[in-house]
Structure formats: C-alpha cells, structure tokens
C-alpha cells in the first residue's frame, strides 16, 4: 500500500503535468492566432504599398539600376515594419525570429505559393493547421475536415496545433458527432452524416414534430387533452389560487405570475381599482370601481376646531391650519407677525431711562 507521502507526490506530479498540458495548448492556440494576425497584416501592407515607388525622384532610373519597387527589399521592409503594434511582444518576436522565412517567400516562393498564411503558418513554422484539422499532426476533426462536427458544432483546436478534436455542439444538437437532438428538438432530417434539428412546440418536453399534437411529453405547466395535444394549465382558475391575499393571479403559457393589487383594493381578482374584491379604507365602491372618498366633503366635519382646514388625499385626508394661523399645543393660533421696519425704527428712537439726559435736582428758594 503506498504511503501518504507518495500519494501526495503523485498528485502533485499529475497536477503539474495537467498544468503544463493546459499551458502548452494555450500557447499553441496563441501562436496560431498571432501568426494569422501577422499574415493578415502582411496582406494589408501589401495592398497599401501596391501603388508606391522608391520616392527618390527618378523612379525609372532607380528601377532600372536597382529593381522594381513592387518586388524590392525596400517594399518588404516597409511591410514588415507595419505588421505588429510596438506593445505586442509575441507578434514582434515571431516576426524577428522568422525574418529569413519572410525574405525567402518574398524573393523565391511568392509566385508559386501566393497564400502566405498556408506557406508560412501551416507548412513552414507549423503553428497552425488547415481548417477542419487539429493537433500536432493536423488530424481531421470529427465528421471530417470538410464539415467538422457534421456542420452542427465546433471542433476543439480547429485550425491550430492544439485541441483534442472533440465537438462542442450548437444549440439543439448533442452527442459525439452532433447528430442527435436535445430534448425540446426533433429531427427534421437525419442520416449517417447529416442531421437537421428543429425546435418543438413550446408545450413539448420531447416531440416528433412541430405542433402541440406531436408531443411525446408535455412540459410542466401543460397537460394532454383527450386528443393527446398539450394545452396550458390555468393555475389561476384552481380552487386555491397560488398568490397572496394582496395579489391577483395572471395566467401565462405554461406558468403564471402574481401581481400586486391596486392600493384601492382590499383583495382583488384583477388589475386596477375595478378588479377589487373589497375596497380599502378611504375608498368606496362606485359602479363597480373603488374610488377615493373625499372626507372633506362629508357631513361630519373631518377637521373640527377653529381656523382649521381639511385637505383630501388618496385614501385619506389631512388637517392644516388656515392661512395666517399656526398650530401650537393642538390648536391653530394667529401667527405673530414681526414688527415692520418703520415701527422698529420708532421704537429704537424712543428715549429710554438710561438714555434720558439728567438735570440737577430743583430746590425751592428759602
């Protein structure tokens, strides 16, 4: 029996291997992506420089003595300088590392191999694979390189030297070959190399056709009638509605929703003040609709007391003091107005005892 230490060591080793494999796969995918970006930018640079020349002022002499600009090293250098952003290390590193290959293709292979991506990325530095193939040896994807995953999915690693070639199926499809339909879909057409899946009727969990009569099983919220068709279950019509007392039930296809009653209602069967089972306090029924009661117009005075007014609000009312009155200790009293500037000036100008001039006391002559 292996010791605990050896088990831990084995687990660590397996984790390291998995990490390396994952990292290598990512690097391989990134390398292919970088190479594709470089060759795409090369094509753009080639198009950009199509109508240029040496720019020395005597193009005819330069092309006679040197070479034609369209096949010159000067043009190649101009194109290479525009392949990568200065901050893209991977791109710049790949261009610098394989500069000789670009020169070889430019001067010796371009005519015979016009597809730079295929010549450079696939055949020469071998970081990519042809479309529909994957892995170190560019093996064909499941379903064949012409129609990977039989046209119903994506092949892992497609076009790169990475991946395991297994299919990630499109919506509606499943299985190793993406030929089977998932629940909720049915086969319109199917053979050993082709499958077309279409969506079932919304009421079907599984089906053989597109209508609610083609259901093998109904989805929750639907049930089969006597003819075998799946129909919506109206949860709101049951004896015990599924919603709370201050809500009403709204049926939907295959389900239901609970909506809040109007504030005029004390319990309701539908939307708005006309859907009330009873009216809330402060509301009364008028022609089947709960409407606000204006307490301020009732025979009984809503706001007793002098100098007090009633203000109606939805479902209630409030009492306020009349203009020029304010509430103090539960009663409305006259608001004290501040003294006017003129009266204040008069008060300020009247002499006080402390400011009155003082005179000597008068004495009677003896």
From TrEMBL:
<keyword id="KW-0106">Calcium</keyword>
<comment type="similarity">
    <text>Belongs to the CRELD family.</text>
</comment>
<dbReference type="InterPro" id="IPR000742">
    <property type="entry name" value="EGF"/>
</dbReference>
<feature type="domain" description="EGF-like">
    <location>
        <begin position="137"/>
        <end position="179"/>
    </location>
</feature>
<keyword id="KW-1015">Disulfide bond</keyword>
<dbReference type="InterPro" id="IPR002049">
    <property type="entry name" value="LE_dom"/>
</dbReference>
<keyword id="KW-0732">Signal</keyword>
<dbReference type="InterPro" id="IPR001881">
    <property type="entry name" value="EGF-like_Ca-bd_dom"/>
</dbReference>
<dbReference type="InterPro" id="IPR006212">
    <property type="entry name" value="Furin_repeat"/>
</dbReference>
<protein>
    <recommendedName>
        <fullName>EGF-like domain-containing protein</fullName>
    </recommendedName>
</protein>
<dbReference type="GO" id="GO:0005783">
    <property type="term" value="C:endoplasmic reticulum"/>
</dbReference>
<dbReference type="InterPro" id="IPR000152">
    <property type="entry name" value="EGF-type_Asp/Asn_hydroxyl_site"/>
</dbReference>
<feature type="region of interest" description="Disordered">
    <location>
        <begin position="332"/>
        <end position="366"/>
    </location>
</feature>
<feature type="signal peptide">
    <location>
        <begin position="1"/>
        <end position="25"/>
    </location>
</feature>
<dbReference type="InterPro" id="IPR021852">
    <property type="entry name" value="DUF3456"/>
</dbReference>
<keyword id="KW-0325">Glycoprotein</keyword>
<feature type="disulfide bond">
    <location>
        <begin position="169"/>
        <end position="178"/>
    </location>
</feature>
<keyword id="KW-0677">Repeat</keyword>
<keyword id="KW-0256">Endoplasmic reticulum</keyword>
<feature type="compositionally biased region" description="Acidic residues">
    <location>
        <begin position="338"/>
        <end position="351"/>
    </location>
</feature>
<dbReference type="InterPro" id="IPR009030">
    <property type="entry name" value="Growth_fac_rcpt_cys_sf"/>
</dbReference>
<dbReference type="GO" id="GO:0005509">
    <property type="term" value="F:calcium ion binding"/>
</dbReference>
<keyword id="KW-0245">EGF-like domain</keyword>
<dbReference type="Pfam" id="PF11938">
    <property type="entry name" value="DUF3456"/>
</dbReference>
<dbReference type="Pfam" id="PF07645">
    <property type="entry name" value="EGF_CA"/>
</dbReference>
<dbReference type="InterPro" id="IPR018097">
    <property type="entry name" value="EGF_Ca-bd_CS"/>
</dbReference>
<dbReference type="InterPro" id="IPR049883">
    <property type="entry name" value="NOTCH1_EGF-like"/>
</dbReference>
């Amino acid at each position: 029996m292996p010791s605990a230490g050896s088990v831990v060591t084995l687990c660590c080793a397996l984790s390291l291997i998995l990490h390396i494999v994952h990292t290598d796969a990512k690097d391989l995918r990134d390398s292919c992506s970088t190479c594709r970006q470089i060759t795409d930018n090369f094509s753009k640079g080639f198009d950009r420089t199509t109508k240029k020349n040496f720019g020395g002022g005597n193009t005819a002499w330069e092309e006679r003595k040197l070479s034609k600009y369209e096949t010159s090293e000067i043009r190649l250098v101009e194109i290479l300088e525009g392949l990568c952003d200065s901050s893209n290390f991977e791109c710049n590193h790949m261009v610098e590392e394989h500069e000789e290959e670009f020169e070889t293709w430019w001067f010796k292979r371009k005519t015979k191999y016009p597809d730079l991506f295929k010549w450079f990325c696939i055949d020469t530095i071998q970081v990519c694979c042809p479309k529909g193939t994957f892995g170190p040896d560019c093996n064909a994807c499941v379903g064949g390189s012409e129609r990977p995953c039989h046209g119903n999915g994506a092949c892992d690693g497609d076009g790169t030297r990475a991946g395991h070639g297994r299919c990630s199926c499109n919506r509606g499809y499943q299985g190793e070959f993406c030929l089977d339909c998932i629940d909720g879909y049915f086969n319109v057409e199917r053979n050993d190399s082709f499958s077309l899946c279409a969506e079932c009727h919304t009421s079907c969990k599984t089906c053989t056709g597109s209508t609610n009569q083609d259901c093998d099983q109904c989805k929750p919220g639907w049930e089969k009638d006597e003819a075998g068709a799946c129909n919506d279950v109206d949860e709101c019509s049951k004896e015990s509605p599924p919603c709370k007392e201050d809500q009403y039930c709204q049926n939907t296809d295959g389900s239901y929703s609970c909506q809040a009653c109007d504030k005029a209602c004390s319990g309701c069967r539908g939307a708005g003040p006309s859907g009330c089972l009873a009216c809330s306090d402060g509301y009364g029924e008028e022609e089947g609709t709960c409407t606000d009661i204006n307490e301020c117009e009732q025979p009984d005075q809503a706001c007793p007391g002098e100098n007090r007014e009633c203000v109606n609000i939805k479902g209630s009312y409030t009492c306020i003091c009349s203009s020029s009155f304010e509430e103090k200790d539960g009663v409305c009293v006259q608001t004290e107005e501040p003294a006017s500037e003129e009266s204040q000036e008069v008060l300020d100008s009247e002499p006080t005892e402390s400011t009155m001039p003082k005179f000597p006391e008068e004495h009677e002559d003896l």
